[in-house]
Amino acid sequence: MLRDRVQEAVDVLRANDRGGYTVPTQGLYPFQWLWDSGFVALGWAVLEEKRAFDELETLFRGQWENGFLPHIVFHRDDPGYFPGPEVWGTGREPRSSGITQPPFLAPVVLHLVRASGEKGLAWARKLYPRLLALHRFLHLHRDSEGTGLVAVLHPWETGMDNSPAWDLPLKRVPRHPLPSEARRDTKHVPPEERPQLKDYERYLYLVSLFRRLGYDPGFCYRESPFRVVDVGFNALLLFADEALAELAQLLGENPSEPRGWWQKGLSALEALWEEEAGLYRSLDLCSGRRIPRDTSAGFLPLLLPLPRPRVERLMATFRAWMGEARYLFPSVLPSAPYFEAKRYWRGPVWAPVNWLLAWGLVRHGFPKEAARLREDFLALVERSGFREYYHPLTGEGLGGQGFSWTAALYLAWARGQSSPPVGPSA
Ligand code: GLC
Hints:
Layout (H helix, E strand, L loop, with lengths): L1 H15 L15 E2 H14 L1 H12 L11 E3 L10 H4 L6 E2 L9 H36 L25 H4 L14 H4 L8 H16 L4 H7 L4 E2 L1 H20 L5 H13 L4 E2 L4 E2 L2 E2 L4 E2 L17 H15 L28 H13 L3 H18 L4 E2 L6 E2 L5 H11 L12
Antiparallel strand pairs: 1-2, 2-3, 4-7, 5-6, 7-8, 9-10
Helix pairs in contact: 1-15, 2-3, 2-15, 3-5, 5-10, 10-11, 13-14, 14-15
Bound molecules: alpha-D-glucopyranose.
The site of alpha-D-glucopyranose has 7 residues, from helix 2.
């Protein structure tokens, strides 16, 4: 049975392959997305190492001269998606959006290098300066006060678009009237599995604001009514800084710059710890307050070295969440008043989060819990196929079908539990 699913996963990746890049799914997401590319590369690596590097090289064709990497690269036209390149109007070639996404790329490159030796090193050498430029952009332009943590300016930058954590900061964002044909997503997926109109109107306001500001990083940072230190984005960036420093060493480059960001960020992360809740929370920079919403992003610092008592406390919270969901790992605690079992990032299980949390658990010596994340994910695919996300209580498949990151991570995980490319188990 597992063997059939492996073949199906290969078929999904091949069907979504557009030559050098992979669309997340046909119809709903017909372009190349930033953090999807990282997860997708982990799957390609199982089939063809070179193809995995190609995915990232193609993504970096969309990098701007200042190091910024957009969250979507519109390599080809497709009328089925809104907001398309004409709405963003970034004036770049290839055409792209003007916001970013979690930089889950350096850890993937390091993982690929560890698996493919000398050949991999040669490919990584080409990507290294681009990765460094991206990390420099983020640490410089998204942390203008030099705190060690970076801000996101749009919920889409977090990759967890409609997480309940963004409800409060989004209240400050005016609503931008949407053209009637704008909600093309709900032509592909039932509306109750997607973000709501009131959120979409705010997403679009931010896009139009950044466009008016010419995507200037300084202006956008100062003017955006949405400015949040997302714990998920920062955990992934710091994890990627650590991987970048390691890559620098392997390539004979100087690791001190990424290592410096990493060390500073690790101590700054303390500001996001919420002792009473027993997990990390994001910080709203406009109000100066931590956002009182508990989401799966609050566990992503497990990817980083943490003091032992902190890990124990976080694991106690993790186990409480385990007790509430049939399938791990829900994006929101099922008993929370803001939990919605089917609505996107407000409850469902997402493959990439399971993968990242499992890496974190392996890093901190919790193989049993990591195995549970893998088993639940494999069971979800077995039951419901390669969906975009899943109902955490029933296992029902939700959102897009034939989804690339789900298929890719299935391939990567079908072989057994994987270890993170940095840390004691690397
Ligand atoms: C949605 C998800 C985001 C993902 C994108 C493409 O916007 O929230 O995380 O990158 O779809 O799959």
